[in-house]
Amino acid sequence: MSSDPRVALVTGASRGIGQVVATRLARAGYRVAVAARSAPELGAVAGEIGALPLTLDVTDRDAVDAAVATVEQELGPLSLLINNAGVAGDSGLSWEQSTERWWGVFEVNVLGTFLCCHAALPGMRARGHGRIVNLGSNAAFFELEGDPDPRVSSAYMASKAAIVRFGDVLAAEARPDGVRVFTISPGMVKSEMTATIFQAEWNDQELWSSAELTADLVEFLETGALDALSGRYIHAANDDWRGLPARIPEILAQDLHSLRVR
């Protein structure tokens, strides 16, 4: 076993899911770096949990490369990357949306995830160990029924589908070097993003999931119990992920927890 300290970088960590995950990792003994565009909020989170704050635009390649280098210089070799930074985009009919704002969702959600992975992987591969967790969503899969829902964001849904497939491919590419990649969904978590979209359902307790479930799943992935399922999609709220180790042969044989045409 390596004697290196456990080091984690969490993007989109100034609030919501990212803040909860970063807090949990810090309490579990990780040296944590938190990244986000909002410097004041980020500084407050970092001060509270003893993390390294990095003001970061994940769509800026040079800034991402510099951030990962800073993490490794200040905290040690990066062993866990949580790609949580994301935006919802505009709702409404696709042809009525701004092309720049529509593509901007891909730049944050997909390009940002790619750039962070691109910066972290050389070190992880060289050390023969590392885990990457990308935040996906069931928006990549669920069926649209009836008339168009005015709240649906085609950019968000398409970007999350891209993240699932990217994680699948990246896991296959990095597996020989000992790096594991997972795409997880946090479920419906109350946040500034969801507050503007699901106002009518805000008091429906059965709809919402706790951000703590995502932190629970991240901690479980870090045990290595699901390393054989690298590349798979796991839902923090809907899947019995603690029971998945017993189902690994079945999942691999039937190619479950994946984005496929059935």
List the helices and strands and how they pair.
Elements: E1 7-11, H1 16-27, E2 31-36, H2 39-49, E3 52-55, H3 61-74, E4 80-83, H4 99-127, E5 130-135, H5 154-174, E6 179-185, H6 192-197, H7 211-221, E7 233-235, H8 248-254
Parallel strand pairs: 1-2, 1-4, 2-3, 4-5, 5-6, 6-7
Mean pLDDT: 91
Main β-sheet description: 7 strands, parallel
Q: Name the structural class.
A: alpha/beta
Order of H and E elements = EHEHEHEHEHEHHEH
Low-confidence stretches: none
Instruction: Indicate the radius of gyration in whole angstroms.
Output: 18 Å
Question: What does this 3D model show about the protein?
Answer:
The chain is α/β, with parallel strands linked by helices and 262 residues long. The chain has eight helices and seven strands, in the order E-H-E-H-E-H-E-H-E-H-E-H-H-E-H. A seven-stranded parallel β-sheet has the order 3-2-1-4-5-6-7, sandwiched between helices. Helix 1 links the parallel strand 1 (7-11) and strand 2. Helix 1 (16-27) crosses helix 7 (211-221), helix 3 (61-74) packs parallel to helix 4 (99-127) and helix 4 runs parallel beside helix 5. The longest helix is centred in the middle third of the chain and has 29 residues, at 99-127.
